[in-house]
Write a structure and sequence with these properties.
Length: 237
């Protein structure tokens, strides 16, 4: 189904748990983004979970009130570097269970307000030092993949990629020019949990998977997030 003006006008409008006005466009088999300008900058949240979108593009520059984009369960492999204005106010972006394989410099340039990012379920999380590089690439992040960003992680990221966030060192540049790799261990600590989480998620029934993804995206506190993560990791629903 195309994202026509009629589809947008007929969509449900709700208040999320934080009281933000939300446009719900879930489960509509939408192949690409279009016509969002007719929303007239009314919404803080646009929910496009579980569609068939392959590219994050065509977000109008005038959506200054938009703070949250929910795009989990699509087929997104690329973020169009021209789709967001430099002054956008995106604070939370969920790309859980998509097809992103490569890092992009636009995450630094285009998401200057981003505090919460979810990339679990994308091939990119299998890259060695994935978490450190994303933390370095997006200095404003407070939560990555439902886990609070710690000061120690910021320090380790700077050791790897440099203190100057405006300058890509040789290692950082290499990350921008290669696809996802298999994770081994980072600093002697096994990082297979993210990979296992992704695999477990694929083994769940479609109904269970959808329900868990909904719970993850609407979770409002760390205890709730930890409980859901535990269920995903153990396969217990």
């Amino acid at each position: 189904m195309r994202l026509t003006p009629q589809t947008i006008n007929n969509a449900s409008i709700v208040l999320n748990p934080e009281g933000k006005l939300t446009l719900q466009l879930r489960n509509l088999s939408i192949p690409y983004l279009e016509n969002l300008g007719i929303t007239q900058n009314k919404f803080a949240v646009i929910d496009l979970t579980n569609n068939d979108i392959t590219e994050l593009a065509n977000i109008p520059a005038n959506l200054s009130n938009l703070e949250v984009l929910l795009l989990g369960g699509n087929r997104i492999s690329y973020v169009d570097e021209e789709t967001f204005s430099d002054e956008n106010g995106i604070k939370s972006l969920s790309l859980i269970n998509n097809s992103i394989t490569k890092f992009q410099a636009c995450f630094r340039n285009k998401f200057r307000c981003l505090e919460n990012l979810v990339l679990i379920g994308n091939p990119i999380v299998n890259h060695k030092h994935y978490r450190y590089f994303i933390i370095w690439l997006v200095p404003t992040l407070k939560v990555l993949d439902f886990k609070k960003v710690k000061d120690g992680e910021r320090q380790e990221a700077e050791k790897l990629f440099g203190v100057d966030k405006e300058d890509f060192n040789e290692l950082a540049l290499s990350y921008l020019h290669q696809g996802a790799q298999s994770k081994t261990e980072e600093n002697g600590v096994s990082t297979s949990d993210d990979r296992n989480l992704s695999q477990i998620g694929r083994k769940l029934t479609p109904e269970e998977r959808v329900e868990l993804m909904k719970k993850l995206e609407s979770a409002t506190n760390l205890d709730e997030i930890d409980e859901i993560e535990h269920k995903l990791k153990t396969g217990m629903v």
